[in-house]
Amino acid sequence: MTMETFEESRASKVIRKWCGTDPKVHAYPGAVALVSKQGKILMHEAFGFMRLCPDPVPMSTDCIFDLASLTKAVATTTAALVLIDYGEIGLDDPIEYFAPCLADHPLGKAQIRHLLTQTLGLTGWTPLFKIGARREDIPSFMRGVELSWPPGTRVQYSCPGFILLGWVIEKVTGMALDEFTRQRIFDPLEMTDTMFLSLDRPVPDRIRERLVPTESRSATSRGREIMEAFAQLEMAASQREWNARHIAGDIPCGVVHDENAAWLDGVAGNAGLFSTAEDLLKFGEMYLNEGVYNGQPILSSSAIRIAQRNWTEGLPGDEHRGLAWQFATPGGPLGDLAPPGCFGHTGFTGTVMWIDPKDEVVVVLLTNRLQFTRSNQHILRVRRLFANTVFGEA
């Protein structure tokens, strides 16, 4: 199938059908979809609008999206794998080794692999911004979190483990997570539009007009709480940037939607990464090429192999997990036709990426579904329908 015929295919029709301005019937105002097979792009298309207010602006294929939890797989996990390759950390390292303050806490005995596989045992916790905890407070803050079951015994998706993992990476490298990932991952991959947008410096001018807004803060209680938390800070660079990156003082544009990542000045292990579909394709191609991109080694083939291993086989829970990656399960985001070995990750803002190693397929779907607010849940069905058409045609 050629790019021309694929763009006229069922996959394209599904994305277009659910794109529009009516939250009652549509899943998002706009989207960018990309499908590649064996190094050939079959589909790279923009749909609808990147923003609706104050005036509608058409979506373009180079628009930059808040990836939300795709950050876990693309940035944080890759950074951890780089450190494993270089002998700086190991999957069985206990958390207490890096955070001695957790030595007498059950979390201290948990291992790096439990953070990466969503088997840490956490269910509920108090958001960082509610108690004013900052980056340096993360380990001591985690002392107040109770484990619901022993690490490694059950799969339960949550964000705190990746926030802690981001802190571990910074402690080991002596670098901020955004700087380490830029130097060791995104620059070598030529992912020039992929970055954390830290609140300690302005948004680069070259990307400002391509940033896709997310959800009105005032639309949810948690959004209003984070607005109030920032309002109470003394006027500083981060607060000025926070104010500057909200349309009409309310809609995030260029600052991460996730409240905890935002409170950590936009750089966290669970969320904060911004990117384009084309850049994510480069990342996917690196996986398909056993860790190498354009002759540049990013990860070892062994690191790629362990990332794709099913680490949660036989554990209770409704997911099968690799290192961050999720495998196809009935009713899951990869749909009904994803082949064995296919893996991916989703993001709360309306993003998803899939990689099929066997047939060398990379699929990226980026949407701005949160402009309808999080109460619009059509995306849960749409991404499965889209996946079905892709794997049925590619």
Word description of this protein:
- The chain has 394 residues and is α+β, with helices and mostly antiparallel strands.
- The protein has two domains: 1-59 and 348-394, no CATH class; 61-272 and 293-324, 3-Layer(aba) Sandwich (Beta-lactamase).
- The chain is 35% helix and 14% strand.
- It contains 17 helices and 14 strands.
- Strands 3-2-1-14-13-12-11 form a seven-stranded antiparallel beta sheet, with helices on both faces. It has a three-stranded antiparallel beta sheet with strand order 4-8-5. The chain has a two-stranded antiparallel ribbon with strand order 6-7.
- Helix 2 runs antiparallel to helix 17, helix 3 (70-85) runs parallel beside helix 9 (160-173) and helix 3 (70-85) packs across helix 10.
- The chain is globular and about 60 Å long.
Mean pLDDT: 94
At the fold tier of CATH, the topology name of the largest domain is: Beta-lactamase
What proportion of the residues is helical, as a percent range?
A: 25-40%
Number of helices: 17
Q: What is the assigned CATH homologous superfamily of the largest domain?
A: DD-peptidase/beta-lactamase superfamily
CATH class of the largest domain: Alpha Beta
Low-pLDDT segments: none
**Percentage beta strand:** 5-15%
Please identify the structural class as seen in this structure: alpha+beta
CATH architecture name of the largest domain: 3-Layer(aba) Sandwich
Number of extended strands: 14
Number of domains: 2
What shape does the CA trace take?
globular
How large is the radius of gyration?
20 Å
Largest sheet, order of strands side by side?
3-2-1-14-13-12-11
